[in-house]
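LOG
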Amino acid sequence: MPADAPAFDEVIHAPHRLRICAMLSAAQKVEFGALQQKIGLSKSALSKQLSQLVDAGYVTQEKGVRDARSRLWLALTAEGNRAYRGHVRALQEIVASDGG
């Protein structure tokens, strides 16, 4: 399937996972705490959503230290980026459809 082909993705479609993918697609990587603050989920709820994206191969996690604190950095994989873009295109086609 071409990288820009519309493809509805059940993993990405859940509202929180869609927002996570949108944030990650706009940046090379995002720190867990920043993502949590922007999305407004508890640590455990965000971790659950991220686990589904990681299990699907859409998101990578990288641990590191910044300001003497342990941090978790998240990024979309190439596969995740393709899936996200395809899902957005599928949604755009649904919205643009004339219903017939």
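LOG (cont.) second protein
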Amino acid sequence: MPAPIRPVSITAHTATSALGRGLRAHLEALRARHSGLRANDFTAVALECAIGRVDGLEQAALPDEHALFECRNNRLAWLGIQQDDFLAQVRAAIARHGADRVALLAATSTSSIGATEEAYARLDGGRIAHDLRRPPVHTPHSLGIFLEQALGTRGPCLTTATACSSSAKIFAKAERMIRLGVVDAAVLVGVDSLCGSVLFGFNALELVAPQACRPFDVRRCGISIGEAAGFALLERDASPSAPQLIGWGESSDAHHMSTPHPQGLGARLALQGALERAGLAADAVDYINLHGTATPKNDEVEAAVVADSFAARTRASSSKGWTGHTLGAAGILEAVICLIALQHGFVPGTLNCEQPDPLCGPQLALGNESADVRVALSNSFGFGGSNCTLAFARGARA
């Protein structure tokens, strides 16, 4: 049984997604129940589906000093760190702790593969076009290399790519590194952008819904893919008024490459680990942001796990009807939504769920609710049984 951990302060956070840029845009869209999903207008070849697209990336070129890293994914990262004064707050943390004492933990599923797709599509006599001969872009670590240069961190720089759990797992990495004295602060980054490989790849697996996804609805038939950039700054011994990471749980059930364990073994282990490290019983949880992808099996298993693990008073919902499934960025984007819930006493409902699966318990919130949210969990369950649950607590109020 894991021992309780010392909470770690989250001194800055932000997100950019199909809902807009920054925390205010996300809060307003959630409160208004305004989804960011729209009919696919991204792929040159027709594909009937809904997507969560970030507007304006096509006009958001990187500054000249970062031109080596030019691609959609890094554009999204650069746009994201401009929101909510996040870039300034990271640089202030570097000044406080020293650049070598600040880690950069990046998470992504496909990184800048969109640029590599373009390079192959534009082969010239079997050679990559001159403007795309930029090796750092054509690597899974492109995001980390770019942001290390842009932010100026000099501590450990790691990239995690465990599909849907990627940017949840970096919270656990950060807590371990801070607790063990490796660093004093960590910048957490999760970014994934739309590209053909993802849209057509998931469609080939028969996992993409032709319309906006319906998490936990009996008519659900697949995911809607989105893009997002999420960021968090975690620091040792920071202000007690900041929200706190109080627990995490990771598991790898290895049941099947794309199907969860039928009894939710991995999900249960991740939930248990998060609660034990937080030193809490399940009935202390006020809100759970569910993985809730709107695929038949994933929702079925998660619904059953939540229904028999938590009190009826605990509220739970999926936010993917707003943003789509943002893959490697989903964990941190949904962590930010949990932090919004903690700060504003607000539970977003489960958009597009009109006929809940009978397996869902009373915990499932369909409409938006006001609630005194003090403790929130966020579930991220990925391909291959890579699972992570995070536990957050509201900071002390003056």
